[in-house]
Amino acid sequence: MKSAVTGGAATAPPVKGKRKSVTGTRKLVAAGFLLPALVLLGALVVYPIGFSVYRSFFDKSGDSFAGLDNYIELFTDDTILTAVKNNAIWVVVAPTIATALGLIFAVLTERVRWSTAFKLVIFMPMAISMLASGIIFRLVYEQDPERGIANAVAVGVHDTFNESAGFPRARPLPVHPLKPAGGGAFVTKEPASAGTEVLLPLVGVAPAKMPSDAAPAKAARPEDGRVTGTAWLDFTKGGGGKPNVIDAEELGLKGIKVEAVKDGKVVASTTAGADGTFSLPEAADGAELRLPATNFREPYNGVDWLGPSLVTPAIIGSYIWMWAGFAMVLIAAGLASVPRELMEAARVDGATEWQVFRRITVPLLAPVLAVVLVTLMINVLKIFDLVFIIAPGSSQDDANVLALQLYRSSFGTDADLGVGSAIAVLLLLLVIPVMLFNIRRMRRETRR
Fold this sequence. Notes:
Elements: E1 4-6, E2 9-11, H1 27-55, H2 69-74, H3 78-109, H4 115-123, H5 130-140, H6 149-161, E3 178-182, E4 185-188, E5 198-202, E6 227-233, E7 257-262, E8 265-271, E9 277-280, E10 288-291, H7 311-336, H8 340-348, H9 353-381, H10 385-390, H11 402-411, H12 417-447
Parallel strand pairs: 5-6
Antiparallel strand pairs: 1-2, 3-4, 4-10, 6-9, 7-8, 7-10
Helix pairs in contact: 1-12, 3-7, 3-9, 4-7, 7-9, 8-9, 9-12, 11-12
């Protein structure tokens, strides 16, 4: 038998019957290492998918074959249709905004001095679980401005540019010289006369809600040619006061607006002082005095963030708060590999920063942006925690998504495992195209 000699060393010819795989490892050994992973994959992924598909063709009890009835219910039940619609909104809106914000943050952080600290702050919400984030934003969106920061800001901005009413529940008693005038306003029962004091007593204002600088009410001094009077809270703590009489402990309605009306037109207006006194010019002589409805409207209480119309955008906002940092970190990593020579050459040729961003930065980052967008799309298709925690029971149907409906249909008080399995199959079918797109994109990138 001859042997081959290479560089003076003899090598034995390969022995038949002992072929090895491309990697040089025996196939049986490789299969032995892969077997535990394959068993787990089959038990935790393949079997549940197969059983869900099988169970989706049976009725609620699982004893009778239901055919496509469960799938037909997915597109005829109003609650499930709302979940499908909301999932479509989530897939379109949340990944797009999160990716756009991540791109903006990644580009801007290259130009700030404390970029690392800024990235840390933006990325920090990723360290918080969905459960904790849901609890945080449930408090943020509280209707009471004293508890919910979103409404505290909204009320603060509103009250800065719009005068708030001072006495939303104030009203006259039947014995008072005032009567309703429609639209929430009140007018005097008799026309006012110059030189005669006009009394405008009201009740219904809690002493604690009175202006902090309100002073004890006092009778207005008569003035020649002018209509004077007093608007006050006709209520004495502990009782003992008399109606239509200014008692010692009763406070003036500071800031309340008083109008003089003749033939339906306002001829004069003023506001009461700290002690409730007011004075109108001679034009008010013979006019009815009116307390307009603006004095009594309910104070602005913020936005109903968790109401039926805004609950889904509000929850999407909390999701973006969490995942914009994730998008920023990935895009920033891609931005670090962009050739700076191209940008500098474009600037030398006279391109503006916006043109450099739009025509160079974004096209070169397209593969990274695609990764972020696809990852977030897969993530939002199975969103559950935030919706379940943030949406209150009264508007949970309006914020419903497929993952939440899957939970409710499978484990709710009136569980129907057939419908729940059909929803699971629908979610799988929605995820598969996105996954295939991602796989094809990754293969194209590998071939480059």
